[in-house]
């Protein structure tokens, strides 16, 4: 088991503004962060809050957060949300060797999408490849496939694929037929069976990019948080993970980041022998996995969770053995 050498430095991931794509931040916010900083006439009094930014030449710098101009969130119409963010090919990489089932990615996603406790866009599975192999934690979300069967079977065009790799659902078009649910080989979709009070919240205009508010009788799922991407922010799951498990970025720029380090996507996949889940199905996912080799944590570390969550794994033979040994 290797020691985790990832530099934390007290960094707030939500304030790590760059997806490894700051060199083209101009396309999203109208200027680069470097220009943004330099353009301020008077430097404000330091607040003690530091933000880590990626400069166009690939360097990570720390700056006073009070010197960053904040850009207001712009409303994205359903029509515009179908086009995607220009010149982007978003991709996610999940490092299985780092995951210890902390479940912060699940909680961050639920909070960001106003989901109920039992609704999980990001699911943490316990996987064992064969009887002789050691089990490992496996975060699983929508794969945002290049050949998505959900899009093919949708009769109304409610599910659609954008040019920036993201697959979204427009619940104003969704008729609840659940064809997409049954066609997805990754079981990534959730059906809203009941009406909930939160669906009545009209404090913000509905957009497929936020999935909020939801609607009874429609389908929902992981959306890669395109509303955050337009602001240059990481998705909720990547922001929330304390172990740096989830990398996110732009394949066109060949850069991904987990909020602590920014690396070349191609080098990461090649050196760590990255793969795509159920790749033989031909769906061409845009979520990649790094094998659970030289794991940073023991499997039993992942059982520091609620009893309700522990119950999900009670029938797994390996888990039963750990219980007999008193390890969990």
Number of helices: 11
Q: Which term fits the overall shape? A: globular
CATH topology of the domain at 78-290: Alpha-Beta Plaits
Q: How do the strands of the widest beta sheet line up side by side?
A: 12-11-10-3-13
User: How much helix, percentage-wise, in residues?
Assistant: 10-25%
Main sheet attributes: strand count, strand direction, barrel closure: 5 strands, mixed
What do these coordinates show?
It is a single chain. The chain is α+β, with helices and mostly antiparallel strands and 328 residues long. It has a domain at 78-290: Alpha-Beta Plaits (2-Layer Sandwich), CATH 3.30.70.20. 19% of the residues lie in helices and 16% in strands. A five-stranded mixed β-sheet has the order 12-11-10-3-13. Strand 6 (159-161) and strand 7 (167-169) form a beta hairpin. The longest helix has 9 residues, at 104-112. The protein is globular and about 55 Å long.
